[in-house]
Amino acid sequence: MYYISFLFYVMSLLLYAVFYKKRANIYSDIGFILAVLGFASDLSRFVFDVSAAMTMSGTFTILSLGTTLVFMIIELRLKRTRILGTVIMPFIMVFSFMALLSAGKDIHSSEVTRAVTSTGGFSWWMLLHIFSALIGYGAFIASALIGVLFIIGERQLKSHQPGNLFYSLPDFGTLSKLNFRYTLIGWLFFTISIVLGHYWFRSLSIKISIDSPKVALTHLTWSIYTFLLFSQIFLGWKGRKAAVGSIIGIFSILVTFLGINLFSNGLHSFRSF
Amino acid sequence: MRITVIGFNHKTCPIDIREKLAFKDKDIECALRGINALPEIRETVILSTCNRVEIYFVRSASIDSDDDLLEFIAKYHRVEVTSFKNLLYRHTNSDAIEHLFRVISSLDSLAVGEPQIHGQVKDAYQKSRELHTSGKIMNTLFEKALYVGKRVRTETGIGRAPISVSSVAVDLAEKIFGELKGKQALVIGAGEMGELVAQNLVDAGISKMVVANRSIERAEEVAKKFNAESKELFELPSILSKVDMIVVSVSASEPLLNKEMIVNALKIRRGNPIFIIDISVPRNVEEEINSIDNVYLYNTDDLTNVANKNKMMRSSEVAQCEEIIKYELEKYLDYLISFDTVPIIQEMREKFEEIRLKEIERVILTKNILNEEQMEAVDYLTRSIMNKLLHNPMVILKKDSGTEEGFNERRSLEKLFCLKEEEK
Q1: Which residue in chain A is spatially nearest to B267 when comparing CA positions?
Q2: Average pLDDT value for residue range A90-106
Q3: Interchain CB distance below 8 Å, B160 and A25
Q4: Which residue, among B148, B167, B175, would best test binding to A if mutated, counting the most A CBs under 10 Å from its CB?
Q5: Chain B contacts of A239, Cβ < 8 Å?
Q6: Is B418 a catalytic residue?
Q7: Is residue B57 domain-shared with residue B150, that is, in the same domain?
Q8: Binning pLDDT at 50, 70 and 90, where does residue A151 land?
Q9: Domain holding B322: CATH number?
Q10: Which CATH number do you get for residue B284?
Q11: Is position B361 within any domain?
């Protein structure tokens, strides 16, 4: 299944690359369909086994799923962002590749994994926690990538050198709106995911400690995005500032999500104790 | 049948002659019907724009010369044929089709990549359809041309970036704000240039405008024309926060807009972007303003540079457009081959098959002299002879399709084998 998803994403990326070069919509259309097929293939893993989300490869699959889901929503709602595919697909492909690399190498020995296994492997809290995290991370990644597009476009405009990419982008108003909207969606789902995670851990009788790097960094990430939203709504952060904010936010996500999951012990860790 | 285009454009014909030979909208019906009534002309489309007059028509390949059409044009416009004959170009069949594809893709336009030509070709074609002067061949050709034009426009950057200074300014504004409807503009300076800019902004869809000038009387005069507000220059600081776009076209010894003024305006605007165009010489807006977040400053040179760069960008896209045109032309020519040869090939096959079956029935089936196995052998044998006899004529018909030779060959076949006329 990993191979199939990865293959779909690679083909999709190639087609988006051809689209960028040739500007023929047919390539981006097929690329989009292949991304959807990759998404379906990834999703089928969790349909058959929800606890797969607790593995390292599952973690990467969640990232690719979330990103693809948000990308699909943007593409379907706003066809003019075809160019987004050329920026977002490399990330999705990397996540999928990491899932492929780590497949079968998971060490099911973290506190959570053991607890999940001992309670029969399934919980609605867990499902909803994972689902909302999936949407949240995807939305944050999308908002960051939209931010990147904004910064590239703005740089060309400021330097009085608008090029091909500039003319391919939607207008700045739309990019800013999308950047804000996906940050807001990400924040909402991320918040829901934290709350649900809290209840899930309680249902597993696991104590949540602020000392846990994952918990601490998750709250730090949440604070960063809360501040970013506050600044956009109340301090008038628009355009470049908002775009930079969403890029900083995604770095925080990467540290929280990948760094902690891969390199530390404790909740969410895939390392053995 | 032969597809032909006769015409002249900005490259071949001076404007004074183009003016005389242009077909006006109200007269086009008469011209279309007149041309369609010429001997053996089956279908006609007239494309008449500021830069070109072209007549596309389908005529029997048996008629070599189109001199009668030239005479019609001369009579219609009351000029001598000799006054324009040498300025004309004439393309037939694949060359005519390629020419149309290049025209609609705006590769043949004065400003390469300009978007209007697609609509103009579409209108010309629709007019002919309405008047029934276009038929099967022209309809498929122009539908295909519209598709090619659209493909070229969407798949290449030929029309993506604007190439005139005023359209660059409007395009950049649309890139910053999305649509200009609902946006407010401030025009500083009510001279001739300011008035021109105000007109461009209104055309671009700006909802509200303020005209500021040293002399309030002149500001009022210009503002009145565009249903705008008028202000004096000392009122500028209070207006800046309310407008999205500022166009400065006034001469002053000191910059009228400085960084502090814009920073203050931006605070009140809660970071909403401001686009400033300084077309005054010497410049009247401090250059550092461009370094402020969400403020974009362009002067005349910047806009001209962007326009020039866009022109170069368009030129670099031409090769890709040509590739699309070549590919679509080949596809269309293949289609045309099947269009005029397939019906006659089918008819010949049917005729031969009919004869074959009749003879089998007459000689063999009625006398009942063969068993089933022998019958199959006879069937196979006669079918094989028929296919071998038809093979060469079919290959030659396909090869000569679209040429005069092909037309004559089809005519001969119709006559020799008593087939019904296929070109309707």
Answers
A1: A236
A2: 80
A3: no
A4: B175
A5: 271, 273, 293-294
A6: no
A7: yes
A8: very high
A9: 3.30.460.30
A10: 3.40.50.720
A11: yes
Q: Indicate if B130 and B83 belong to the same structural domain.
A: yes
Percent of chain B with pLDDT over 90: 29
Contact A241 B161 (CB under 8 A): no
Give per-residue pLDDT as tens, B151-168. 998 888 888 777 777 788
State pTM to two decimals: 0.69
Closest CB to A239: pick one of B154, B174, B293: B293
**pLDDT computed for residue B124 by the predictor:** 95
Q: Which residues of A touch B305 (CB under 8 A)?
A: 160
Same domain, B174 and B103: no
pLDDT at B222 over 90: no
- Number of domains, chain B: 3
> What pLDDT score does B34 carry?
92
Is residue A18 less than 8 Å (CB to CB) from chain B? no
B21 and B96, same domain (yes or no): yes
Chain B within 8 Å of A174 (Cβ-Cβ)?
Answer: yes
Give yes or no: residues B328 and B224 share one domain: no
Report yes or no: A236 at the B interface, CB cutoff 8 Å.
yes
What are the chain B neighbours of A174 within 8 Å (beta carbons)?
Answer: 178
Residue A207 vs residue B363, higher pLDDT: B363
Asked whether residue B421 is assigned to any structural domain, the reply reads no
Task: Tell whether B20 is covered by a domain.
Answer: yes
Residues B130 and B38 both lie in one domain: yes
Q: What are the tens digits of pLDDT across the range B136-154?
A: 889 999 999 999 999 998 8
A179/chain B closest Cα distance in angstroms: 15
Is there a contact between B155 and A22 if contact means CB atoms under 8 Å apart? yes
Residue B282 belongs to domain spanning: 165-308
Which residue is closest to B323 within chain A, CA to CA?
Answer: A22
The answer to whether residues B294 and B183 belong to one domain is yes
A238 and B270: CB-CB below 8 Å? yes
**Do residues B119 and B256 both lie within one domain?**
no
Q: Is residue B424 part of a domain?
A: no
Give the CA dihedral A183, A187, A190, A195, nearest 10 degrees. -170
CB contact under 8 A, B298 and A161: no
Q: What does the block give as tokens for B236?
A: 């500028």
Three-class secondary structure of residue B179 per DSSP: coil
Q: Is the pLDDT of residue B275 over 90?
A: yes
ipTM over 0.85: no
